[in-house]
Specification:
Layout: H1 3-16, H2 22-27, H3 38-52, H4 72-86, E1 92-98, H5 101-114, H6 121-137, E2 140-141, E3 148-153, E4 160-165, E5 168-176, H7 210-222, E6 226-231, E7 239-253, H8 262-272, E8 277-285, H9 287-294, E9 301-310, E10 327-331, E11 344-358, E12 361-369, H10 374-379, E13 385-386, H11 389-393, E14 397-408
Parallel strand pairs: 1-2, 1-3, 7-14
Antiparallel strand pairs: 3-4, 5-7, 5-8, 6-7, 9-12, 9-14, 10-11, 10-13, 11-12
Helix pairs in contact: 4-6, 7-8
The protein binds zinc ion (ZN) (2 copies).
The site of one zinc ion has 8 residues, from loops.
C-alpha cells in the first residue's frame, strides 16, 4: 500500500476515532484512488488496510455523516410517493438538499486537517440520490433546465421533500380577427382585479383577451392553473392582427402534464376562439425565447394596413408625396404619454403605398421599423411626429382602422 495513502488513512482514523463510512472515507481519496464513486473508493481503502492494519474503522457509525447515505433508498421512497400524490408527468429532474451546518462543518474540518480540497458531502449526496432516482424512473438528471427540482430538507429527523415544478414553454403566432380584444388580461382599473360594480364583478376591463382565449385550452390539457403570455410587441385593442400573425410565447406554470398533443391543442384553441383569435405553428419552446421575442430590435419590422379619413379630397398625384415619409422623428404620443417616458425617437418608414378608396378615404400599406407609431404617423399627433401624412398632404388625416399584416424580424 502506497505510504502516502496509508498515512492519510491512519490520520483519518485518528481524527474520526475510527468511525467513518465508505462514502465519507472514499470522498477524501477522490484524487488518489480510482472509483467509480466514493463508496467503492472507501471500500478499496478498507480492503487494503485489512492486510496492513489491525485498527479497522467502523463502518456503520459514521462520525461525519451519521450514515446518511444508508437512508437514500428510503428517501427515494418518500420522494416517489410525493410525486405520485401530486400526479406529475415529467422527463427530467434535479436533486438538491439542505443539510445541517454541523454536518457540513464536520466534513469540511476533516478536509482542512488533511489539507485537501475534495468534493463536498452535499454534492455527493445529491448525485447518489439522483442516481437512485434515475434508475428507478428511467429519467435523467438535467442540470440546465430540469422539469422538476426536488429539494430534500435533511435538517430534521423526518426529512421533508419539496417539489418545484418548472414551467413549460410553448410558442406560435396568433391572428386577431376582430377589434375590441386586448392582447393580455386587463385588470379592472377601479378594483384592480378583485371584482366590483364597475367591472360587473369580473375584475377585468374586457371579458376576453387573446391571452385568455389561447391559454384556456392549454391550461386544461397541461393540468395547470396559471400561465403568462409573452407577445412580440402588442397591437392596440382596436387593431386587428392579420397576415402571418404575431409571434408569442406562452409560459405554463406548474404543469402536471408535459407531453401535449400540440396538433389537437391548436385545433382546440382555434375552435373555442373561432372568429376571434387563431393560432398558427404551435410548438414547444424554451425559457430564453421569452426574452428573444420581446426585444424588438431595430431590425424588426411590421407591415400595416390603415384606412385613413381625410378632411378634404386629394389628387392621385399627391399620393406620390408619401415617398417623403422616410426618417421619422417621433415624440412619445399623447395617448401613451401617461405611461411611457417622454422622448423623441427616430424610426424608419421602409415602404409606404397609398390608394384612394373614395374621395375622402385612403388605404395605406406601411412597412415600418419596429416601434413606429402608425396612428400618429398619419395624424401628426399635434406635430409631435415629423414628418407626417397630414403635413405632406396639407390636409388633416385620421386613422380610422388599423390592421397589422405582418410582424417580421
Ligand atoms: Zn459517512
Ligand atoms: Zn372592478
Amino acid at each position: 500500500m502506497d505510504v502516502k495513502i496509508k498515512n492519510k488513512s491512519l490520520k483519518i482514523i485518528e481524527i474520526t476515532e475510527g468511525k467513518i463510512c465508505n462514502h465519507c472515507l472514499g470522498r477524501k481519496f477522490s484524487q488518489d484512488i480510482e472509483g467509480p464513486g466514493n463508496e467503492l473508493r472507501g471500500q478499496k481503502i478498507r480492503n487494503l488496510m485489512d492486510l496492513t492494519d489491525k485498527h479497522l474503522p467502523v463502518e456503520d457509525n459514521c462520525s461525519i455523516c451519521g450514515c446518511i447515505f444508508q437512508t437514500l433508498n428510503l428517501l427515494a421512497d418518500t420522494i416517489e410517493s410525493k410525486i405520485e400524490s401530486l400526479d406529475l408527468e415529467f422527463f427530467s429532474f434535479l436533486v438538491g438538499s439542505i443539510l445541517t451546518p454541523e454536518l457540513i462543518q464536520k466534513d469540511d474540518e476533516l478536509s482542512e486537517k488533511l489539507d485537501i480540497e475534495v468534493e463536498s458531502i452535499k454534492k455527493e449526496l445529491n448525485r447518489e440520490l439522483g442516481k437512485i432516482l434515475e434508475s428507478r424512473w428511467k429519467k435523467e438528471v438535467d442540470f440546465d433546465s430540469p422539469n422538476l427540482v426536488i429539494m430534500v430538507d435533511l435538517k430534521q429527523k423526518a426529512p421533508k421533500v419539496r417539489i418545484q415544478i418548472n414551467p413549460l414553454f410553448l410558442e406560435g403566432r396568433y391572428r386577431k380577427l376582430v377589434r375590441g380584444i386586448p392582447q393580455t388580461k386587463w385588470p379592472c382599473r377601479k378594483c384592480r382585479g378583485k371584482g366590483c360594480e364597475y367591472c360587473n364583478f369580473t375584475g377585468k376591463m374586457y371579458s376576453e383577451s387573446v391571452e385568455e382565449l389561447i391559454s384556456a385550452p392549454v391550461l386544461e390539457m397541461s393540468h395547470s392553473r396559471d400561465s403568462k403570455f409573452h407577445g412580440a410587441g402588442r397591437e392596440d385593442i382596436d387593431v386587428k392582427m392579420l397576415g402571418t400573425g404575431r409571434p408569442f410565447v406562452l409560459e405554463i406554470k406548474e404543469p402536471r402534464r408535459r407531453n401535449l398533443d400540440l396538433d389537437t391543442l391548436q385545433k382546440d384553441i382555434n375552435k373555442s376562439a373561432e372568429g376571434k383569435v387563431e393560432v398558427l405553428d404551435l410548438k414547444y419552446s424554451f425559457r430564453s425565447r421569452k426574452a428573444e421575442i420581446k426585444t424588438s430590435s431595430p431590425d424588426t419590422y411590421k407591415i400595416y394596413q390603415a384606412f385613413v379619413e381625410l378632411e378634404d379630397e386629394i389628387s392621385t398625384e399627391q399620393l406620390n408625396d408619401l415617398q417623403n415619409l422616410q426618417i421619422i422623428q417621433q415624440r412619445t404620443p399623447i395617448r401613451v404619454s401617461h405611461r411611457r417616458a417622454d422622448k423623441i425617437r427616430t424610426r424608419e418608414v421602409m415602404n409606404i403605398k397609398g390608394k384612394i378608396i373614395s374621395p375622402k378615404c385612403l388605404e395605406l400599406i406601411i412597412k415600418g421599423q419596429g416601434g413606429l407609431y402608425i396612428k400618429e404617423l398619419i395624424s401628426g399627433d399635434e406635430e409631435r411626429t415629423q414628418p407626417n401624412v397630414s403635413q405632406i398632404f396639407g390636409v388633416a388625416a385620421r386613422c380610422l382602422t388599423l390592421n397589422v399584416l405582418e410582424v417580421g424580424s
